[in-house]
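Deliverable D4.2, example record:
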Amino acid sequence: MNTNFNKINNTNIYVKTNCSCTPCTKSYLENSDIKNYTYSPIVGKKIYNCVTSSITDCSFNQIFKFTLNSSNSNYTDNSPICIKKIGLSYDYIGLPANVANTSQIYINGKIHKFIPKDIINVGTKNNPIYLFNQLYSDVSLTSECCSANKKVFKKVRISHIGNFYDISGLKLYINGYINCTPFTATSSLSQHVSDLISLSWLGISPSLNFSTQLCYPSSAKRFTITEICNPKLCMDYACPITNYERPIETQTFGTFSASVNFIFSVTSDIYISKLQPMTVITNAIDTNLLT
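Output generated by the structure prediction step:
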């Protein structure tokens, strides 16, 4: 057994070789005698097809007020701001529950609706606010006439019309220099608007349209279409539009305003699957190896 441990990035995380398998290579049963195999019946998900698609939008010149996280005697009123690094954090980005009504699947000229899955409550127990990033639709198709002329595969069109995303707990971060003295500053949007805002408040389009297609076997009459969305928001650029302003009586630290550009992207993994009985074949366990 390989017991060589390796340190990763100078942190206290160690790894060791778990097996000698090479990833992404075929694995074969060594013993060809069928009586030595073990058969395990399961109900598994058979994936007919899958596709990955993405959409990107951006916004420009969004004005935010930033508050410094500390004070310093070198921060003099009306001093210019030099921004070096930018970033943001948030708790969750997702689709509001009613967006599922605008997400449709077109099969054989008929419309099938998506249903939200794994809904997250980003509000409170007494004031719940639900968002989601997964959808599914159970499809049942009827037999067609002229079955002898059917194609082996057919196409399904998936469309989202006018989707808009909400974000909770968004905070913007900037660090840089004032009079050659380092500073860090934060803009918490929950202080200015609410803890949950629409990305349209950041200049992102409130009507994102998305459409793609994939194939499924003509013989399949019942299957499930699942879509997993992976939204991501980032700050692309920030430019100060005011100089440093010393704190007034109601403030603890100084402030300044900056123009911010954002980039928003959504990557969607969509697949067609069906639950069905399967048999898993494995090698029989040699009990002598366990002693």
